[in-house]
Queue: 4 jobs
Job 1
Amino acid sequence: MKKNLLLMTVLIAIFMVFPVHKAHAIDPVTIAILAPIAIEAAQIAAPYVLRGLKAGGGHMIKMGKDVIEIFCLPLGVIQSTLGMPFGQLGPGIRNIAVGFVAPFKLALDAVLLPIAFCGIGTGT
């Protein structure tokens, strides 16, 4: 019972110290005055936004390639075991290596994705 009372007291104290922020409405006249400025700013920023979207989209396509490469691991295992009599040992081992490395490449690309959407070349 004392723990519950202490917890309630701490929570109430926290909410008293940090007040809840309230939204304030903007009148329509202010919006009408600021709209041309916002349109001009959007036109200036448009090339940079499009460059960032293009770089991020290309990076996501590369991530999709990494996801597909993950399936090379089971394919390589099948090639190197069942396909060994048919000369598939070499390509099977190569596919195992590609499939083993693919999740790490995908994780690196996932970490670099926000940087790619900023329009910065990640080099990978």
Job 2
Amino acid sequence: MKPEAITLRARHGAFWSLTIAAVFFPVPYVRNWFFSSIDPVGTVAGTYFMVLLLLQAVQSFFFPGGRNVLPTFLPKLTDDRDRARLISGYFYLVLAGSGVGMLVLTAWPDLPEFVLQKEIDADVRSAVRLILPIILLSSFATSLLMSKMAFALATFLLRSQLMIITAIAGVMYVTGSQALQEAPVVWFGGAVAAAAIINLVIAAFVLVRQITPSVRGFLPAGCLRFAGLAHLDTLMVFGYGAIDRLFIAAYLGIAELGDYFLLLTIAQVIPRAAQELGHLILTTFSKLLGVREEDRLADGYRQVTRLTVGAYAALSIPIILFSKPLAAVFGPSCAAEHRWLILLAVAMNIDCLRTINGMTLMAYERMRAVLVSKFAQNLVQLALTAALISRFEVVGVIVALGVGHAARALSLIWSVRCLKADRRLLPPRAFYVSQVLVLIAAVVAYRVDGTGTPAALALTVALGLLLWFTGGFGKDDLRVLLPRRKPTDGGTS
């Protein structure tokens, strides 16, 4: 495939992927509204959060290397036989992971109960064991779609579970059925299995016409090492994503976890935009390094970090100041705990540079530094959660989460700072200003138990203007957001 064709397909895929993401953006909040309406106590939402944790555990522990290995190595191969053999080789690894997973669940059948923090029937345990290989093969198939540059289809399939569960919750709400409250694990587990089967069937139908099968397996040089590091990275991500859930469920109960999940979903809006741009940043910075344009990389880093900091603060401040009405969307139980949302927004904003710093380190092939930062987050968050939960309950868990984010942020900032000796890559002034302004908004909202709408609106505007004038922003920051004409000299814009 010619470079122009590759670029065209990548842009086409990126456009449709972002379009699909935008279309599906409100769906999780519709799903959560159904959950809170069906069960105001929060048990249904909490159970769903734990079923997601079990699914993530299966994919993190038993899918070798995660979804990034095939998209990293398959496009680099030019020989069709090598491509077919790589696909076969990785397919064998996935089968091996499935076998290990089934053996683990056979030897320790109570593991799903430990993850779910809920007693389940023997039939459900058996079903988890049978579903495991289907889930892993489905992940393999969607990873292969990404490798073949079928970005839009892969993006759509990865949201099939969301669609199915939202549809189930919607039907239960409209019909007034109590089935979801009576057996949430069964319904959510069935939705996960159905989504995995649908993904596998559709992906196989598309891929079978594009792939020449090979019995022999083949893994390129460096593939196993990369897969090992990527797998360790996946486990780190699972670790800090599981700590809060497991502690809240074990110490405070599934219902409390449900309210926490509903408010966390709101706060997760803050990092989403930066996460969507992560692979674009990695690809662009890697290309600049490949053509020895480190000065342009440094300029791009400064520009992107300033914009990222501004975007985080622009979302964090209104979420903090309007925390009470936002939380009230999911019922009086969440409204009563809206201060959790304030703390969650602060925690998210602390680590506002994680995507750009992580991708910059990956572009320089400093994967070890990324792993160290995530290990630091896990260690700090685990220790503080264990120390604080008994006295401060969910507030203690969120404080531990925020300090864990801070540990990761400091580790990443230091590692990126050490990359270049001549032009150090440092956080912009707006980073420090935004942290102070977000903390001011949080202190005000926390102490007055939620400001009124006029006061919240006035304070949002005032803090936004302070961020603009004291954070070093200017007209150029608005201009770079506008689309530019494609350069005609073959350079990098």
Job 3
Amino acid sequence: MQSMFSTLWGDEPQPKRQDKSARPAVAVVKHETESASPEETSEIQSKTNTCSRTKHDINGDIKRLSEAFFSGHELQSGFVIETTLHDLLAVCPRKRRRKDAYKSLIHALNKKGVELIFLENSCMRN
């Protein structure tokens, strides 16, 4: 094999690879920092958990629905909103363009006594 390599790259000897074990040892120094007290940490975590669970502004969505479907009148118990997913996405956009992206909105509307019904798109029926 050495003759093959010498014909490709010349007669110059190639430098040998260094063994990884020959590397000098590096000292690892851990700097201790002041940590937050447990009360502060749990407070921060609880605030973070609440924010991460509520991804969308549900009150803003409800306000936009009332403006779009009821000319700005406040939603009342007994109201029914029948719309397609496409139309609802225009009023209350979501990254996930599926019905299940509106579970929290449907739940909030149900608490107010308002029902949200998804209609099938006429172009999708065949």
Job 4
Amino acid sequence: MGVIEKIKACTTMRELDELRIDIIRESEAGNCDFAEAQKEFIQKQNSLRRNGHSRWKEGYTLNDVISEQKSKGVL
């Protein structure tokens, strides 16, 4: 599954935020176009916000996601 498909499959803001590093790595590796992935990311983020999803409502911060990824060795 490509990055764009992963973005479209997200149902929560947290799932979307966890894809940030994958998007960067895939675009650096030449597997996807960063501008296209960024556009899809923003569209999905706006869609989730319109449907009542936010970091605050889901009870986490972006720093929480980054810390978890560091502890898992993803970063």
